[in-house]
Design goal:
Layout: H1 7-12, E1 15-19, H2 21-38, E2 45-50, H3 54-61, E3 69-74, E4 76-79, E5 82-88, E6 101-109, H4 113-124, E7 129-138, E8 151-156, E9 161-162, E10 178-181, H5 183-186
Parallel strand pairs: 2-3, 2-6, 6-7, 7-8
Antiparallel strand pairs: 1-10, 4-5, 9-10
Helix pairs in contact: 2-3
The structure holds inosinic acid and magnesium ion.
The site of magnesium ion has 4 residues, from strand 6.
């Protein structure tokens, strides 16, 4: 007889649990409550960085005032588990940022190269005040000039993690939990 495979056992193959779905949900609600207070009265614009912040931005947004505007930019700087240190795609991104307060939302702060490049682009577009909210912050040295986020969901060890938006080679973004990617998954052929 086939037994239903639980979410936990399905996700556990990917790697050891770091943050459960419930813990993530509670922390996102707490962050959103704090952001609501800080930006009251509005207006402000959320700038979500794709693809990694897809789920985090969507969950935050549902807890924020209905007037909150959201814009997404696409930025890529990772090949596998290695940062290229050179975020790509920003010159193609724009929007109405002149004179606006902007809250940049990203999945994880690692070297800080991504946020530094996003900050420069936003300043060129005339943003008035820029703050940062990251779900995860890796405990490691940052690049010079990396912005310091006002909101951080969790400080985590310097390991490669996946789930809740974070990927490895495009995989695992849809996991409900965040996991430390298992070694054998890293060396796996892309299309076995
Ligand atoms: P940074 O520019 O080095 O700070 O890297 C930030 C970006 O790298 C994030 O937006 C993520 O997309 C990606 N990244 C960094 N660490 C991880 C990880 O452990 N798992 C998945 N993606 C990561
Ligand atoms: Mg990212």
């Amino acid at each position: 007889m086939n037994r239903p495979v639980t979410q936990e056992s399905r996700e556990s193959e990917i790697g050891n649990l770091l943050l459960s779905e419930q813990l993530i949900r509670q922390r996102v609600e707490a962050l959103a409550a704090d952001i609501r207070t800080a930006y009251s009265p509005g207006p402000f614009t959320i700038l979500g960085l794709l693809n990694g912040s897809l789920l985090f931005t969507a969950d935050l947004l549902r807890e924020l005032p209905p007037e909150t505007e959201v814009v997404f930019w696409r930025v890529k700087s990772y090949e596998g588990t290695i940062s290229t240190g050179n975020p790509e795609g920003l010159e193609a991104e724009g929007g109405e940022f002149a004179g606006r307060r902007v809250l940049v939302v990203d999945d994880i702060l690692d070297s800080g190269c991504t946020l530094r490049a996003v900050e420069k682009r936003l300043r060129d577009l005339g943003a008035r005040a820029i703050e940062y909210c990251v779900l995860l912050s890796k405990q490691r040295p940052r690049s010079p000039g990396a912005p310091v986020p006002r909101w951080i969901g969790f400080e985590i060890p310097d390991q490669f993690v996946v789930g809740y938006g974070l990927d490895y080679e495009g995989r695992y973004r849809g996991l409900r939990s965040i996991r430390v990617l298992a070694e054998e998954k890293m060396s796996m052929e892309r299309f076995p």
